[in-house]
Amino acid sequence: MSKTAAWISAARLRTLPLSISGILVGTALALPSDQFDISIFWLAIATTLGLQILSNFANDYGDGVKGTDNDERIGPMRALQSGVISDKEMKKGIILTAIITAILALSLIYISFGKENFFLSLLFMGLGASAIIAAIKYTVGDSAYGYKGLGDIFVFLFFGIMSVLGSNFLMTKQLDVWMFLPAISIGLLSSAVLNLNNMRDELSDRNSKKMTLVVKGGKKFAKPYHFSLILLAFICMVIFLNLDTYSSYNWILLPLTAFIPLAIHLRKIYHYTDPKTLDPELKKVALSTFALGFILFWIVFLEF
Description:
Blueprint: H1 3-11, H2 16-19, H3 21-28, H4 38-66, H5 79-82, H6 87-113, H7 118-137, H8 151-172, H9 180-200, H10 202-207, H11 213-241, H12 244-247, H13 259-271, H14 279-303
Helix pairs in contact: 3-8, 3-9, 3-14, 4-6, 4-7, 4-8, 6-7, 8-9, 9-11, 9-14, 11-13, 13-14
């Protein structure tokens, strides 16, 4: 594997569509108020991609130096694990990505609030800083929260609640309580991807003392938990799309078709015995979540 290929592998391109799902939903729902801003849209996308790549680099580094990525791991070989990229090189990559992401976040905040809303700018700077720190601290350091079973909560908050509500607020400067429904839906589906990843890596995580929720609860917990995440995400989205504000839109229920492959996925999860069969399922859940956001974005966009 070449250096370039190793860096591309470490960025984990297959995770990127999932990361922007919340942005697609949040910005699309700014359209009814006629406050959609294309500059904010693209900067929000770029910032979120930066955070996801930063998280992927940090995860590669953290699991690599802790020895969690070893021969027992089922998923694709990590960059640090392969030996093509050293820990010092990966650390530099993390620092550079964090700087670029911070610049993107500051640009996003400035474009959205300018100089007039100092308090809101300060608030979002704090949120941006916390997102960058959270992306790094998932597996890096002695207090890495991913090793304490807290990864699901942070994914839910940052890639669900903050992504949808934050991107929407950057455009509308308002907080609609009903927006929590799609935010919860995207957050739960994002957590389902992480749970699936942890189900696949249960053995290697257990032996490396990475105490994910799956390691703590075992398969008897992981399966019903996974079902609950996806079913609750579906219920939240059904309720939201049937609100008076959106129920009159043409084809507004079409985003729910993204749950069809998820229903098939749940059937496979119910019957699975070999963790190796879970790796292809990760892509299905991630792409279904992206499809949900993408379809919803274009339906609302075409209405306006």
